[in-house]
């Protein structure tokens, strides 16, 4: 089992920045691909970003982004802290959603929510115009 706890959400004006963190506990963090998803009211959960696992893979640090956030958001991970991050810059009102951290075992990159086995409780991000 893996437990994921997000933090760092809040309210920010359009054009601003916000950083999210996701602390993992349980089975080896380094063996899991990590991802961020978001869900706005009345909409389906959508993929935001993913980062490959870090347990000796030759693709260490490889990331993958949804087109809607590419160039604005950055995903990273710290193995020593068992934490994955999402830095969000140039935020837009359409980025408003609950953001979820997730962990996956399937081949990278997993962009479908069904491919993720473990989920955090979510953290609200609100961007005002």
Describe, in plain words, how this protein is organized in 3D.
- The chain has 129 residues and is mainly beta.
- The chain is built from no helices and eleven strands.
- Strands 2, 4, 5, 6, 9, 10 and 11 form a seven-stranded mixed β-sheet that branches. Strands 1-3-8-7 form a four-stranded antiparallel β-sheet, with no helix packed on it.
- β7 and β8 form a beta hairpin.
- It is globular.
- The N and C termini lie far apart (40 Å).
- 34% of the residues are buried.
- The model has no long low-confidence stretch (mean pLDDT 93).
Protein traits:
129 residues; mainly beta
User: Whole-number radius of gyration?
Assistant: 14 Å
Sheet having the most strands: 7 strands, mixed
Q: What is the CA-CA span between the terminal residues?
A: 40 Å
Taking all residues together, what is the mean pLDDT?
93
Binned, the helix content reads under 10%
Low-confidence stretches: none
Q: How many H/I helices?
A: 0
**Beta-strand content bin:** over 45%
Question: How is the topology of this model organized?
Answer:
Elements: E1 2-7, E2 10-13, E3 18-26, E4 33-39, E5 46-51, E6 63-65, E7 73-78, E8 83-88, E9 97-104, E10 116-119, E11 123-128
